[in-house]
Amino acid sequence: MSDITKEPFEPRIVAFFCNWCTYTAADLAGTARMVYAPNIRVVRIMCSGRLDPQFILAALREGADGVLIGGCHPGDCHYQEGNYKALRRFTLFKRFLKTMGIEEERIRMEWIAASEGDKVQRVMNEMTEAIRRLGPLHLEPPNYQMVEEFAAHQQAAGLVQGGAR
Amino acid sequence: MSKPKVGFYWCASCGGCEEAVVDLAEDILKVVEAVDIVFWPVALDFKRSDVEAMPDGSIAVIFINGAIRSTEQHEMVELLRKKAQVVIAFGSCAHLGGIPGLANVTNRKAIMEEAYSNVPSVTNAEKTVPLEKTEVPQGTLSLPGLWETVKTLDQVIKVDYYLPGCAPPTNLIQDALTAILTGKLPPAGSVLAPDIALCEECTRRDSRPEKPTLKEFKRPSEMIVDAEKCLLAQGLLCMGPVTRKGCGTPCVKGNMPCTGCLGPTSHVKDYGAKALSAMASIVDSNDEKQIAEILDRIVDPVGTFNRYSLPASLLHRRYQGAVDGGKQ
Questions:
Q1: Backbone angles phi, psi at B290, to 5 degrees
Q2: What Rg do the C-alpha atoms of chain A give, in angstroms?
Q3: Beta-strand runs (E) in A13-153
Q4: What is the C-alpha to C-alpha distance for residues B325 and B270, in angstroms, rounded to an integer?
Q5: How far, in Å, CA of B155 to CA of B157, rounded?
Q6: Topology, domain A9-134
């Protein structure tokens, strides 16, 4: 094992929270001074229905180890049915990611109402721990020159046998 | 003035793109009149040494079809990049990875095992697999090496233009050739097709509901397809809404849904994720269990939505970290 892996691993998690429920709940958790894992970076979106699956892939591609999606409870969507659209997409996208070898625990969707600051705290802690157990996500870069460097790096860290190319 | 020199080359592809060039029919004579074909291994006898002997930049335009997945293809396209002024990625495989790109859901080892041991028609008790180097009494035999990951052409060399399609439609090829011959090419990096969704040119467009919703996804083989009505409205997974137009919808005219070979418009980064998003969101249910049941009819989401575009997608390939010990 090289030095790279001796660093304690701190998961980087990107969260997409809907403006009306989950983001407000996160705000509540903050003002109530609830203590939770600092590993989550929150991106506010107007509605979980705005979440394009491309955002999730882009987050993983840019270095996130996991993605958390928060929306209003079913029936509570500020835009009537945005969270149902999110649910439909997420249901299929989970299967897509499974085929692509991404562990299920890395992507999580939760309905969190504006009053549920404690749920934000619990989910963030749970997810951070789940991803800490999984370890970092090492996505292979696209260009072949970068792939060679990546393979050498991976091998040095004792992560993958053989060339990645 | 001497005629511009043009070449064609193929990598990991089926040969359909070469067929598309021949499909220009009589018009190909006009092309031959206007240009000198200096390299086209599938149709004319040229060797690699012929290309090596050409001065750098002497080929005006090289059309390369096929994805890149072997050391030989890699060397050839690097050589052709040096010899050509303009490189055009020709067809879905060179553009987005294409059907060969679906190999990225597995890996080199599994492909070798499947092809040389597991296929029922193969008897290979010694588990012989092709090797890059084999020692025989007469010396060393060599074969090109197979890459772990299939790449698009632009992940390997700089590409100037893309001609999309599986295979590229003849009208787009003609437009591209005209643009090249008249020097009216768009800015470098462009896809040589209209930048708008396929539905726009679909003959069934008027029957597409304002807001399509589906209770069930069907397959063309399970139903009598209405020849007039929007295929999506009939329950078929038609990729028209997320795919670039320009082909004249031959599949849809033949009662087959669009599978997305022309790839996304310039507004989309990851075709598969966008297509999945569009198709999943029209499911007509708000019940978690029922949604899952309806979507279970899409048996293979990766192969369905990234049929031609897996190597070009944001993930590029199946994540292998977990399998090979990515855990710390």
A1: -65, -40
A2: 17
A3: 13-18, 40-45, 66-71, 107-111
A4: 28
A5: 6
A6: Rossmann fold (3.40.50)
**Domain ranges in chain B with CATH number 3.40.50.700:** 5-100+149-182
How would you classify the pairing of strands B133-136 and B139-142? antiparallel
Domain-wise residue ranges, chain A: 9-134, 138-165
Task: Please provide the DSSP assignment of B222-285 as one string.
Answer: GS---SSS-TTTTTB---GGGSB--S--HHHHTT-----TT---TT-S-HHHHHHHHHHHTB--
Give the burial class of B216: count Cβ atoms within 10 A of its Cβ; 0-12 exposed, 13-18 middle, 19 or more buried.
Answer: exposed
Return the CATH number of the domain spanning residue range B5-100+149-182: 3.40.50.700
> Which of A57, A87, A165 lies at the smallest CB-CB distance from B288?
A87
Question: Is A30 in the B-facing interface, judged by CB distances under 8 Å?
Answer: no
Which B residues 147-166 touch A at CB under 8 Å? 147-149, 151, 155-156
**Which helix (H) or strand (E) covers residue B59, if one does?**
strand B59-65
> Residue A161 contacts by C-beta under 8 Å, 6 or more apart in sequence?
A155, B324
Q: Say if the Cβ atoms of B273 and A93 lie within 8 Å.
A: yes
Q: Does B14 touch chain A (CB under 8 A)?
A: no
Taking contacts as CB-CB distances below 8 angstroms, the residues of chain A near B270 are 53-54, 57-58
Interacting residues of B247 by C-beta distance below 8 A, sequence separation 6+: B165, B169, B172, B198, B261, B262
> What is the residue-level pLDDT of chain B in tens, covering all 328 positions?
688 999 999 999 999 999 999 888 888 888 888 899 999 999 888 899 999 999 999 999 999 999 999 999 999 999 999 999 999 999 999 999 999 999 999 999 999 999 999 999 999 888 888 999 999 999 999 999 999 999 999 999 999 999 999 999 999 999 999 898 888 889 999 999 999 999 999 999 999 998 889 999 999 999 999 999 999 999 999 999 999 999 999 999 999 999 999 999 999 999 999 999 999 999 999 999 999 999 999 999 999 999 999 999 999 999 987 444 433 3
Integer angstrom CA distances of residue B327 from A16, A140, B68, B282, B324: 26, 15, 30, 37, 9
Nearest to B23 by CA among B173, B165, B161: B173
Report in angstroms the alpha-carbon separations of B22 from B18, B28, B95, B173: 7, 7, 20, 11
DSSP code at position A80: S
Q: How far is B287 from chain A (nearest CA, A)?
A: 8
A54: contact with B, CB 8 A cutoff? yes
**CA A164 to centroid of chain Cα atoms:** 25
